[in-house]
Automatic annotation (TrEMBL):
This is Acetyltransferase. It comes from Lentzea atacamensis. SUPFAM superfamilies: Trimeric LpxA-like enzymes. Keywords: Acyltransferase, Repeat, Transferase. PANTHER family: ACETYLTRANSFERASE YJL218W-RELATED, GALACTOSIDE O-ACETYLTRANSFERASE. Residues 5-59 form the Maltose/galactoside acetyltransferase domain. The keyword Membrane does not apply. Belongs to the transferase hexapeptide repeat family.
């Protein structure tokens, strides 16, 4: 069986309003308030806060405020990566970001899935998750949304405002809603 937290991390159906998960979200919100109140340019202090919060963060990675991460313990970020202002990481499922990833402002990484046909289950707060994996040297333009269960391959570029609903292979340029591959790069 397991706790709702364990089920959430595994991608099994779980109750999102579980008291343990609510405590985890409130802990994350408190840390995000501190993080977002950091002195401008205090990248060392910001990195230290994230190092104690997320599952893993590499050296020289900068995530600008106003950052929102739902839990923290499901997020892994490589080295030399950058997320511009207003990034959102809903990490109820695992989120893995590679090395040297560049993300424009208001990028959203969303792992939560809600029942589509079972309205009663959705109203009752049942959810599942699907992991997001972003390879190395990926570049997301501003406002990119990555949906649950998506893997983005190494050296891929996603144009501003795109919604990534399916996996993208290595070395492509993808744009649009839904994001479609335009060409190899």
């Amino acid at each position: 069986m397991g706790t709702n937290r364990e089920k959430m991390i595994k991608g099994e159906p779980y109750l999102s309003m579980d008291p343990e998960l609510e405590d985890d979200r409130q802990r994350a919100q408190r840390l995000m308030i501190r993080y977002n109140a950091s002195e401008p340019g205090d990248y060392e202090g910001m990195h230290a806060l994230l190092k104690d919060f997320v599952a893993e963060i590499g050296e020289n990675t900068v995530l600008l405020p106003r950052l929102q991460i739902e839990y923290g313990y499901n997020t892994r970020i490589g080295s030399n990566s950058f997320m511009n202002y207003d990034g959102i990481i809903l990490d109820c499922g695992p989120v893995t970001i590679g090395d040297n990833v560049m993300m424009g402002p208001r990028v959203q990484l969303l792992t939560a899935l809600h029942p589509i046909e079972d309205h009663e289950a959705r109203i009752a707060g049942w959810e599942t998750t699907a992991p997001i994996v972003i390879g190395d040297r990926v570049w997301f333009g501003g406002g990119v949304i990555v949906c649950p269960g998506v893997t983005v391959g190494d050296n891929t570029v996603v144009g501003a405002g795109s919604v990534v609903t399916r996996d993208l292979p290595d070395h492509v340029l993808a744009v649009g809603n839904p994001a479609r591959i335009v060409r190899k790069i």
